[in-house]
Amino acid sequence: MAALSSAMRGSVKPKADFNVKEDAMALSKAIKGLGTDVKTLIQVLTHRSSDQRQLICKAYQEATGKMLVKDLKGETSGNFTDLLVALVTPTAVYHCQQVMKALKGVGTENSVLIEIFASTSNKQIKELSDAYSKETQRTLTEDLKKEISGDFASAILILAEGKRDESTNVDAAKAKEDAKILYNAGEKKLGTDESKFIDILCHRSIPQLRQTLVEYNTISGRSLQESIEREMSGSLELLLVAIVKCVQSVPAYLAERLHKSMKGVGTDEGTLNRIMVSRSEIDMLDIRSEFKKLYNYSLHSAIQSDTQGDYEKALINLCGGDGA
């Protein structure tokens, strides 16, 4: 979804002189010795790409007859365990597990669904959907329909199909037309036609929507985000605002999510882990930059202030580790 999806903007890159057997044996030694060598666990797992970590998992099982994920769960604890498990889980499966967790239990965690479906690309959503079917023997949309409802469900279900237009061409006339439709469906009328907002914001390409935001501002005199916040409420408002923010900048949106996860009393480790792991190879350097711009202190220092011990050390490595 982001304009820059290159791994060049990630803080974690594939290790150049990668030796899978060496890494697998180093992890085995770290786990089965007297007391777990967490320094080695952190060093290996936070400095390899997701693909390399999957190769390590396979080599580890071949060498020891055990699953690395089970050994990590047995030898570590708490938030540190959750982070390490996330690191050795394939990205699509991890996202799938996050959605499954959000859907089960009393009340659906809409904020997790909003973050994932507003900030991920068609390709990532397709991979998530495939992983979901494999894990549950049910379709993702089938389960979403059972757990969410109303206009919020309509919007999430469109996004979950992963069929957003991916054209890079911008039709200026269409952007003006869509801006007028949105203005007439919201600010200009008594009551709001949410379906128009859902249709345009969930189907149009990102470059097209960027131009639509500009045209809307010209017509309305206020931003589309402001209009959505004035005209709507609840989960639909939060989702559409998240989409608008991601159209402008996915890294800025995720920087805001990270800030919120560490702000105030207590830490939302689920959000912190999810973003730090899933974006470490995509745009973590941009997220760091946006975080600094938005809050006048570094993501590095926020992590240091809000976490501790081995968990903090692993997160710092995923952040890039240089304090910028």
Automatic annotation (TrEMBL):
It comes from the Eukaryota. One of its GO terms (molecular function) is calcium-dependent phospholipid binding. The gene is ANXA3. The keyword Isomerase does not apply. The keyword Disulfide bond does not apply. A pair of annexin repeats may form one binding site for calcium and phospholipid. GO terms for cellular component: cytoplasm; nucleus; plasma membrane; vesicle membrane. This is Annexin. Keywords: Annexin, Calcium, Calcium/phospholipid-binding, Repeat. Pfam families: Annexin. Belongs to the annexin family. Signal peptide: none annotated.
